[in-house]
Amino acid sequence: MSYLCLENLVKTFNKTEVVKKLNLEIKQGELVSFLGPSGCGKTTTLNMIAGFTEVDEGKIVVDGKPVHLLPPNKREMGMVFQNYALFPHMTVFDNVAYGLKLSKIGKSETQRRVLEALEMVRLSGYEKRYPKELSGGQQQRVSLARALVIKPKLLLLDEPLSNLDAKLRQEMREEIVEIQKNVGITTIFVTHDQEEALAISDRIAVMYEGRIEQADSPVSIYNHPKTDFVSRFIGEVNQIQGKVTEILGTHQSKLNFYGNEQIVAVNAMKNAEMDFFIRPENIQISLVETNDRNIGFKAKVERKMFLGAKTRYILKAQNKHLIADISNVVLNSNLIHEGSSVYAAWKPEHLLPSRNVR
Amino acid sequence: MMQKKRKKTKKQLETWALLLPILVIFIFFFLLPLFFLFITSFKTFDASSGIANEWTIQNYVKFLSDPFYLGIVWRTVKIALLTTIITIVISYPVAFHISKANGRIKNYLTLLVLSPLLISMVIRCYGWSILLSNNGVVNNTLMSLGWIDKPLTLLYTELSVVIGMVHVLFPYMVLSIMGSLERIDPSVIRASQNLGAGPVRTFFSIVLPLTLPGIFAGSVMVFSLSVSSFVTPAILGGPQVKVMSYLAYEQAAVLLNWPYGAAIGFLLIFIATITIIMYSKILVRSEKGVAIQ
Ligand SMILES: Nc1ncnc2c1ncn2[C@@H]1O[C@H](COP(=O)(O)OP(=O)(O)OP(=O)(O)O)[C@@H](O)[C@H]1O
Ligand SMILES: [Mg+2]
């Protein structure tokens, strides 16, 4: 039974549909990321869930109850904003206590829960400070404590880390996941940083132009993208073409890539041209010809970039460019120079078929 | 090192050069006359030459020990305070709505609010005196409706002065409050709603405290402009509703008692300053977190 249901959500701004019949179900305790390019409707969807933006069509159901007609102050959702949105005229304590004071629990209970929440975000002792006396990371922690202290039904985070520097961002995201798991709160995390989404999510909902393209675990999203958009958007891909030379059976075809033949598990028609994606880290290169199954073809190294743990090679084969990322542990990058001739290869199972029908 | 220093001095020089014109105006046409006025207020009065060459504090003593004059001080402050409070009350909703409006409508509304400033002070005051006089529009309307039998005394009262003053000064308050309303981050309002606060609660806990700096800045402007205003009380209050600026004018320009006029002028500045300082103290105490920028 899903805890949050978004059913056919539609939002139109000035006659343009920004969210187009969006559907998503989230289980209790799950952390789901909304990931997508700028302007794809992530914030709009989140604002509809929180109640800041009216729903034009569709339903939002939380724990079996429709909430899309309630005002934001009746929805019991905790939101963490990109720019923290702390109340500048209140101390850290008063910021966190704000929601509790409205719920009319006793003074001592309020105090206890505020201190507990601040301890959870590791800010004990900061109660009397004002927001402007805190660093960005600390402000975001206060904001998190303020949202969680009211025990909301959902935790909504809209790019909560994008105003922090890279190092702190990584620390904070781990902290957020830890707190989220401890509290067990159902969470939606909006981001356009795919690494962030891959690292923290139970599931990622990849959004594109107002729709959810695919909602799956990070591993599935990365290894089994369902649409071309997802293939291109998550991680990096090379786009390659193969020509079908022989049909070997259902889901078994022989294709020709760069003059070499390889058996791939796809349905095809004879002589058809097919598009595939392959990730840079799934391309292997060697100085000598490799075994038959991982077909090797000749390529020239055009450029070489040392990236620390790996080296990126820009290869050219039959006038097409390919990017290959090779771990420096596997292959000593000193052996290969710009201009060298190498053999490139991949395993057929690493080919991601394109849905783009020609 | 040397170069850096030279660069710095050059920069400072540029800053001062840019400030020079306004500085000259400020010093020669404001500070210096004020200084002479201050000196004058400690001189005795001489019927033939105006300012005699003897020092005295009699001007101040005379003013501060006379109940009549103290009454005028109280009236001046009272009118200015009333004007300030009324402008706050009527300007806040206006500012609130304008800051919510968008694009072109906002520009038109702002222009509309500023329109009283486009008309000459004197003309506007005479306009009000036509409206408020014994057989003016207001009285005639009320009488023809049968709500009153004989005309109400509206003109030449403290009320008419306050009305005229509010009309001139409320644009300052609206602009000032609008400025601070627009500086509020919309996500702060959303955060408040998100935490369970309805519109009323959000207004009193978040919006109002965050606009106190704007209210304060507007109040300072409105108060100091109204406490020292001359034209409006002169036309809408007349000799019946004397205020300090009118008194100073009367002493200096009509009775030619320059030293006494100067002393009144200085007391006016002093009272305005004290009131503003006290006001800011109260405001800061009531909202410790909001800096009065
Ligand atoms: N209040 C509004 N009025 C009109 N158009 C809007 C409004 N809010 C958002 N839009 C439009 O809706 C689209 C989606 O906006 P949204 O803020 O949801 O994108 P997003 O996915 O959050 O992007 P980002 O990653 O840049 O934050 C954009 O094209 C935006 O211009
Ligand atoms: Mg956004």
UniProtKB/TrEMBL annotation, chain A:
Keywords: ATP-binding, Cell membrane, Membrane, Nucleotide-binding, Translocase, Transport. Part of the ABC transporter complex PotABCD involved in spermidine/putrescine import. Responsible for energy coupling to the transport system. GO terms for cellular component: ATP-binding cassette (ABC) transporter complex. This is Spermidine/putrescine import ATP-binding protein PotA. It catalyses: a quaternary ammonium(out) + ATP + H2O = a quaternary ammonium(in) + ADP + phosphate + H(+); ATP + H2O + polyamine-[polyamine-binding protein]Side 1 = ADP + phosphate + polyamineSide 2 + [polyamine-binding protein]Side 1. Gene3D superfamilies: 2.40.50.100, P-loop containing nucleotide triphosphate hydrolases. Belongs to the ABC transporter superfamily. Spermidine/putrescine importer (TC 3.A.1.11.1) family. It comes from the Bacteria. It comes from Fictibacillus solisalsi. GO terms for molecular function: ABC-type polyamine transporter activity; ABC-type quaternary ammonium compound transporting activity; ATP binding; ATP hydrolysis activity. The complex is composed of two ATP-binding proteins (PotA), two transmembrane proteins (PotB and PotC) and a solute-binding protein (PotD). The complex is composed of two ATP-binding proteins (OpuCA), two transmembrane proteins (OpuCB and OpuCD) and a solute-binding protein (OpuCC). PROSITE patterns: ABC_TRANSPORTER_1, ABC_TRANSPORTER_2. Residues 4-234 form the ABC transporter domain. Its EC number is 7.6.2.11. It is an enzyme of class 7 (translocase).
TrEMBL record, chain B:
Gene3D superfamilies: MetI-like. It comes from Fictibacillus solisalsi. Coiled coil: none annotated. Its main location: membrane. Residues 73-279 form the ABC transmembrane type-1 domain. GO terms for cellular component: plasma membrane. Keywords: Cell membrane, Membrane, Transmembrane, Transmembrane helix, Transport. PANTHER family: ABC TRANSPORTER PERMEASE PROTEIN, INNER MEMBRANE ABC TRANSPORTER PERMEASE PROTEIN YDCU-RELATED-RELATED. The lineage of its organism: Bacteria, Bacillati, Bacillota, Bacilli, Bacillales. InterPro entries: MetI-like, MetI-like_sf. It is a multi-pass membrane protein. GO terms for biological process: transmembrane transport. Belongs to the binding-protein-dependent transport system permease family. CysTW subfamily. It is found in: Cell membrane. This is Putative spermidine/putrescine transport system permease protein. The chain crosses the membrane at residues 16-39, 72-96, 108-131, 159-181, 202-223, 258-279.
